[in-house]
Write a structure and sequence with these properties.
Length: 431
């Protein structure tokens, strides 16, 4: 029997989730709350319809009422903030199936101090660190520590709470802004001063039901705003999968030394982890080490991973929610997928909203291309306009990474909004 599903969120990740769920033969309708300009479509051959619902991600009673009224078979939570606030617990208590970790389990992302202490306790490889709740003590430690370090706000800071600077005076200024000026609010009340690891980064996301964990293809994103990894950090300007310099044997090793011990440790301490576990890793001279954990699908990683998923996402997510992931055979398409983010002028700093977007229909006609909306809205005439910093993700699948990148960049040529900027070197060093 066909089912209804609910996706919570409004970005490119949620568009990709809705798109993947709508391809399931078991799904008759997808609801996205609150959604964006791209998450509305009519049903067609092989694709269930998708509707937006004007309920915000922090309106737990409204979301639960929606799920009950529409007889939702499964809710998938996109963003980290509602997960950290306990939305999965609220749905579970209401007797509603949900894909996503509990508030206690989401601490792996919501509190870097918790995550570091957890990794230390369970022997999961990560950088050395110290935790501080006192500005004076943290400042004193910065002045005395030898070797390069990274400054991190412990709480959620929308991906902006990690400071990497070589100049000690600037690092101390950043610490003051974080702990005393409260530029990240309560997220900076506790800070981590961590050994700065060096090496190539890779993201490994995995499905988990609290016992079983199944890695997805590894992905690598580009954080800097401009070509050649220049400019300020962003939420991600592009991404690709698989990662040519990470072998299947290494993924197996990551599962054995990092992913499975994390799931086992969380279950042992009474906070079983169900949903997507996202491990941000760095390959060091001593092997892979955890930079950070996230408690949900990544963005823009989701926009390159899901186009390669051959199995049914609804079946996988439902099995995770019901603690029977071991029953599911998860298969992936051969080839590669790349996505390029089209950003508003000024992003990641101040940027305008309400700019008209053209060429989306033409871009979507390109072979093996999907245009996922991130920061978009609909104007009074029913036309798409910009509504955020990262506006669109142009994803393309190819037999290999060079082909995927070529298809994505060719499709971008058809899209326009004033001041649109994007990186032209996504995957360049590995394609």
């Amino acid at each position: 029997m066909a089912q209804k599903v609910l996706v919570i969120g409004s970005g490119g990740r949620e568009h990709a989730l809705a798109w993947a769920l709508a391809r399931s033969s078991r799904v008759e309708r997808v609801y996205v709350a609150p959604g964006n300009a791209g998450t509305v479509w009519a049903s067609s051959d092989g694709l269930a319809e998708s509707r937006n619902v004007p309920v915000s991600v922090d309106d737990f009673p409204g979301l639960i009422a929606l799920a009950k009224t529409e007889n939702i078979a499964l809710t998938i939570v996109g963003p980290e903030v509602p997960l950290a606030a306990g939305i999965a617990d609220a749905f579970t208590e209401a007797g509603l199936p949900v894909f996503g970790p509990s508030k206690a389990a989401a601490q792996l992302e919501a509190s870097k101090a918790f995550a570091k202490d957890f990794m230390k306790k369970h022997g999961i490889p990560t950088g050395d660190y110290r935790t501080f709740t006192s500005f004076e003590q943290a400042d004193k430690y910065l002045s005395e520590v030898s070797g390069p370090v990274v400054l991190k706000a412990s709480g959620l800071a929308a991906g902006k709470g990690v400071i990497v600077l070589d100049n000690l005076d600037k690092l101390r200024q950043a610490l003051r802004r974080m702990m005393q000026d409260k530029v990240f609010g309560e997220a900076g009340d506790t800070v981590i001063i961590e050994e700065r690891l060096s090496g190539p980064e890779v993201s490994v996301l995995a499905f988990s039901d609290g016992k079983t964990i199944v890695p997805m293809p590894p992905a690598r994103d580009h954080k800097r705003a401009f070509d050649n990894d220049e400019g300020p950090n962003t939420g991600g300007m592009g991404c690709y999968t698989p990662v040519p310099d990470v072998s299947q044997a290494e993924i197996d090793e990551i599962k054995r030394t990092i992913l499975q011990p994390t799931i086992d440790g969380m279950r042992e301490q009474g906070t079983p982890y169900s949903g997507v576990l996202y491990a941000g890793l760095m390959r060091t001279t001593e092997g892979f080490k955890v930079i950070e954990f996230n408690c949900r699908f990544g963005d823009p990683e989701t926009q390159v991973i899901l186009p390669l998923l051959e199995s049914d996402l609804f079946d996988i997510a439902k099995a995770c929610a019901e603690e029977r992931l071991n029953e599911i055979d998860i298969r992936w398409k051969k080839g590669a997928c790349a996505t390029v983010v089209l950003a508003s002028p000024g992003y990641p700093d101040q940027y305008p909203k309400g700019l008209s977007i053209s060429g989306l229909d033409k871009a979507a006609l390109h072979k093996s291309v999907s245009v996922f909306h991130a920061g978009t809205a609909i104007d009074g005439n029913g036309l798409p306009i910009t509504g955020g910093g990262r506006v669109l993700n142009v994803s393309a699948v190819g037999s290999d990474l060079p082909e995927a990148l070529k298809r994505a960049y060719n499709a971008i040529e058809d899209i326009h909004f004033d001041g649109m900027h994007f990186r032209r070197d996504i995957g360049k060093n590995y394609a």
